[in-house]
Amino acid sequence: MSTADEFRRKKRATIIDVGHAAGVSDATVSRALNRPETVSEATRQKVQQAIVATGYVPNALAKAMVSGRSQTIGALIPTLDHAIFSKFLHTLESELSAQGFNLVVAVTNGNRDYEVSKAKKMLAMGVEGLIVSGLSHNDELTSEARRYGVPLVLTSYYQPDHAFPTIGYDNAKASALALDHLVAHGHRKIAVVHGPLVGNDRTRSRIAGLQEHPAAAGLNLIETDLSYAGGAAAIDRLTPGETAVLCLSDVLAMGALFVCQSRGIAVPQDLSIMGFDDLDPSKFVTPSLTTLSLPIAQMGQHTAAAMADHLMTGKPIRSIELPVMLQARASVAHRQS
Where do the HTH lacI-type domain residues begin and end (predicted)? Predict the structure, then answer.
């Protein structure tokens, strides 16, 4: 049996085992691993050979205990069922990894109490920062972040006067931009299809932006499940004379589009449909979906950069507003007289 096999069978090898195998102190092993320039080449070679012989692998937890740094960030996300959050996490993890940080993720299902519970577990693990979605959270979440002294960043929202930094977009301004586009195409009676308002401050902000718009009197607000089926069901709740449907999610818009096609309702000739998100499929449905492009990848990049820069240099994290872009495609047409 090899030395490495013996160590694996008995227990996980430590730097003490490496030191015994190399004939040096465990302090010398630590220097060879963490500050190799402080030991001789011959010593580094002996330590490396002992690492191979013992099967030693570094213990990240032990290193964190010694250094006081976990190099880990926690992200609390409402769901992974929607591509918006998956895209954000993909970019966030890539950017943090490039800066030497790890990312741990917890799904909260939009439940604030569950979010607090998950955050406490992350903080107990030693995460150095927390990233959450939206502005609405239990006071206990923010108090725990303060108690542990870790930065808390709120995403998918921009509100510069908030107590914590926000990195995202102005949801009210974005919905107003969408309504401007429909009004410019002659639509005055417009159905607005949206997901549940409870637990989703982003949707509430988008609705508020629409209600403050000069064309608000012509809007019919329809709340439904945030799903393809929910978008399809909303078509049955249109009122006579409505010529356009503004969906506050591409998922809802595509559900509405699919049911219109199945019923022989021509889009956009009979009914214009507009989405919100610019998910990848929106480009490829027929007709291609007019929508708003949210800066999800940029949000991940900026959040990671701000968090990493703060933890490495102490630079304060500032709120950042990212632009929302109109993607004018084929599902919206000028209202027929």
Answer: 13-67
Beta carbons within 10 angstroms of residue 186's beta carbon: 14
CATH placement of domain 171-293: 3.40.50.2300
Q: Which CATH number fits domain 3-58: 3.40.50.11220, 1.10.260.40, 3.40.50.2000, 3.30.470.20?
A: 1.10.260.40
Residue closest to 108 by CA, chosen among 75, 72, 70: 75
pLDDT tens figures, 64-108? 545 557 799 999 999 888 889 999 999 999 999 999 999 999 999
Sign of the alpha-carbon torsion through 225, 226, 232, 235: positive
CB 130, CB 152: distance < 8 Å: yes
Instruction: Name the fold adopted by 70-169+296-323.
Output: Rossmann fold (3.40.50)
Q: Which residue reads 């220097």 in tokens? A: 31
Residue pointed to by tokens 């002996």: 46
pLDDT in tens, 172-215: 999 999 999 999 999 999 999 999 998 889 999 999 999 999 99
What does the pLDDT look like over 299-318, one tens digit per residue? 999 999 999 999 999 999 99
Q: What is the DSSP letter of 198?
A: T
Alpha helices in the chain (DSSP H): 3-10, 15-22, 26-34, 41-54, 60-67, 83-98, 112-125, 139-148, 171-184, 201-211, 228-234, 250-263, 296-313
What pTM, to 2 d.p., does this model score? 0.80
Instruction: For 324-337, give one letter per residue: b (16+ CB within 10 A) or e.
Output: bebbebebbbebee
Q: Report how far residue 6's alpha carbon sits from residue 20's, in angstroms, rounded to the nearest whole number.
A: 14
